[in-house]
Amino acid sequence: MNLPNKLTVFRICMVPLFMLFIYLQIPGKYLISLIIFAVAAITDALDGRIARKHNLVTDFGKFMDPLADKLLVIAALTCMIKPGLVPAWIVVVIVARELAVSIMRAIAAADGKVIAAGNSGKLKTVTQMLAIVFLLLGAHMDASLILKVGTVLIYIAAILTLYSGYEYFSKNKELFEDR
Description:
Blueprint: H1 3-23, H2 29-53, H3 59-79, H4 88-110, H5 119-141, H6 144-171
Helix pairs in contact: 1-2, 1-3, 2-3, 2-5, 3-4, 3-5, 4-6, 5-6
Protein name: CDP-diacylglycerol--glycerol-3-phosphate 3-phosphatidyltransferase
EC number: 2.7.8.5
InterPro entries: CDP-alcohol_PTase-I, CDP-OH_P_trans, CDP-OH_PTrfase_TM_dom, CDP_ALCOHOL_P_TRANSF_CS, Phosphatidylglycerol_P_synth
């Protein structure tokens, strides 16, 4: 297994660790969760760059990297509903879009096509991750301004989520024409 794929697997392994710490009733739980999330998010930026730079792109990486991103973001957002950091409806919108695009990618793969992440999808992921960072930091510091920034970012992420989902489906509508 090459380094980018190891980073992807590492990111997946960070998800339950993140969830464990965010649910523990210990001082600093949001800071610890933030550090775990940030380390995992950094591996997302690294694995793709390393894979492309050193020609280490694999089919495993093409499918598991987006899955790792989805697992990390969905786990974080889901854990942030109960403490009131993220509205549940935003999590439902994000999960629904992720499932829909994943199903579309599976249909395309069955036809021998690969749907690469578009710029709006990448921007959506970055915005979601930034929102999570600000929300966790704001919760840790009990800082209303930082929480407000995180809240604005999560609403922007919800809009980008809807837009990128629309873009994926409109650019690939031919997948569904003969079905």
